Write the structure tokens for this entry.
Amino acid sequence: MKNILIIVGSLRKDGFNYNLAKEIQDKIVNEITPQMEESDKYDVRMLDYVNLPMFSQDIEFDWNKEVKSLRDNLKWANKIIIVSAEYNHSYPGVLKNMLDWASRKEIREFGAPEYIQGKKVYLTGVSGESKASYVISELTNLLIFMQMSVSTSSIGAGLQPEAFTTGKYLINEEDREKILGNICLFIAE
């Protein structure tokens, strides 16, 4: 069994990136996994980090249940898919906060925790004309610093312009197909 953790970089309920994350999860669970041998199947989780406290070194070693859950999920995962919104050409603060917690060891030591070192990550997201290229670039730099391994095939998708005025998830179909295809290759590696 291969464990895939999907992290949505926004807390917006039914947001554009949440919808893409659900599509990715559905593709893996309902289309790919049923055709596989039992030992090769994928177990997919979406990370819930809505109650994660703001990172502070004053509470860094306090083991509250939200931090423990984050660490347990990161240890569980063989691969991670981050589907992030793009805020002002960068990543959302809630995602950065979660990654700050993820980057810290459980004891006072230098360096990234062993359970994230070398962990393979695929980055994607939906936005306007940039197709999430800014957030993918910013996250790539951050995750490499955290000693994680970012897929070079990470790409984002553009939304139809009316998505921003209607709030409806209207993703470019060609972009969707490329993302889903790349993710299929990423999880199979």
The domain at 2-188 is CATH 3.40.50.360 (Rossmann fold). The first helix runs from residue 16 to 32. The chain has one domain: 2-188.
